[in-house]
Amino acid sequence: MPNGVLIFGEATEDGKLAAITAELSGAAAALGGPVTCALLGSGVEGIAQEAGQYGAEKVIVVDDPILKDYQGDAYLPVAERIAREVDPAVILLGQTMIGRDLAPLLAQRLGTAVVMDCMALSMEGDKLLAERPCYGGAARARYTINGTPQIATVRVKALDAPAASGSAEVVKQDAGVSADQVRTTITARNKPESTGIRLEDATVVVSGGRGLGGPEAFQQLEELADVLGGAVGASRAVCDLGWYPVATQVGLTGKIVTPDLYIAIGISGASQHMAGISSVKNIASVNKDADASIFKASRWAVVHDWKEFVPAFLEEVKKVKAG
Amino acid sequence: MPHIICFAKQVPDPETPASQFKVDEAAKKVIPAPGVQQVPSQFDTIAVEAALRIKDNHPDSTITVVSLGPDPFRDTIKHCLAMGVDEGVHINDPAVNDADHWATAEVLAAAVKKLGDYDLILTGRQSVDWDMGVVGSTVAEILGVPVVTIAKQIDYAGDKVTVERVLLDGFETVEAPTPCVVTVSNELGEPRYPQLRQIMQAAKKEVKPWTLADLGISAPQNRVNLEALYVPDTSVETEVIEGETAQEKAATLAKRLSDAKLI
Fold first, then answer.
1. pLDDT score, position B226
2. Shortest CB distance from A301 goes to which of B19, B30, B239?
3. pLDDT under 70 in chain B at which residues?
4. Number of domains in chain B
5. Does B243 lie in the same domain as B208?
6. Domain hosting residue B139, numbered range
7. What is the dotted CATH code of the domain comprising A5-181?
8. Residue closest to A110 by CA, chosen among A141, A84, A142, A71
9. Is the Cβ pair A135, B234 closer than 8 Å?
10. What local confidence, expressed as pLDDT, does residue A284 receive?
């Protein structure tokens, strides 16, 4: 009889423990545990102990250069082996660049299914109830899975991370993957120079949509974000039109952001955009269309042309900041 | 002669205003809003666009679009044919009307095997109704070929493809041997829109009507059960900021945000 929960922790690009690891640990413990945390990567052994501080009883760390940059062919055999060894009732991964690619492959390899991008998980008897947004965030769907193990990916920041306490037994394993098993090759990585605060970490996000009418407008948004100590985001329409970098896209197929304050300017509020800010409590929106659907989700609604409003608002914010 | 297979699905128009979006919680189905059209899933037409761009550079390519669904899905196949796809396969069988993502992947993989040789399978990164994002990868696993997900550019060169894929912060370039599966994201660009002449040409193109019997398989088992479907309550109490001028409204909003200690 399989039991317990296996989670796949992650490291950040600069080698620190990714926050999703704690979030998954908390979710796994809430499902009843016991929790085993697998940690795959290159140079991750140093954070294995820390990965075990959030409720896991055991950390299986696989530290191998072949796992440096994620590739399905390298990660899948290791993940499959650990899954078969641990034989858990439930496996959780993050809905991250790694998890969203690896989870469907792992599910098929194990002959089971995965419910992607969950925002709530619970157990009913031995059945996992996995709840997720669909229809671009307009609806929620709750699933059960017929196969074993029952796999889910969890949306980043959707669940609270527990505080660090306790410690886990750390077990080292070899990857056991040879280079010729990896059919794909990463030939280049292109990371735009990051300027200022990361969108995901910002406490204030100033975001612009198609209503801005062109790329020039983003200069004013940048200035506003600068004064507020925040970051600039954009809607998918804006990124598809090439007005602002793809890396700033907020929404279902872009970034999930959780600032204290989200200022939406010229954004109509398509549900796929709202999916990226579903956890934000304070939304202030500026739109000249009084029927813009983003107003329904906003705490403050400004019905006005942004061209007049934003310069005036910038002056007012400067006054507040000057105290 | 490169052979590219695209998977395309039909969905309720995702531009439906939120106010018109309703679900039947008992039936666990979306209630079609009056006047809302069924349209090709957007990421899938972008995958077709990716295939057509390859064909622009390799005119001897053949593109086949495969779609699994009831009668109306023929419109999605016709749309892809009008975009420039060469032939269609419509798998239409009541036994898989309620196929989940895994049953769908099994049927599509069986169709690929029946089609024979192929170099590339392209499909959307996810459908725009269920947003699950598993079918492309699952088909790749069933067929035993590599998969590269979330592509923004695909260059085909015979025995390999070079794929630029979207990361959270930037891009990476991945080479994969063919045959393989690539799932395509919106960053690739807008799909071309069929012209009248192409729509008329499409009427003459072949759409193979296949059933599970033609594929030589029985209906695959679903692996997930939809237990509930509902519209979450996301409404908040909204204050409309009053004022005669932009300056007045700006001052009021700044005060509200300052009072709430948000700025």
1. 97
2. B239
3. none
4. 2
5. no
6. 3-215
7. 3.40.50.620
8. A84
9. no
10. 98
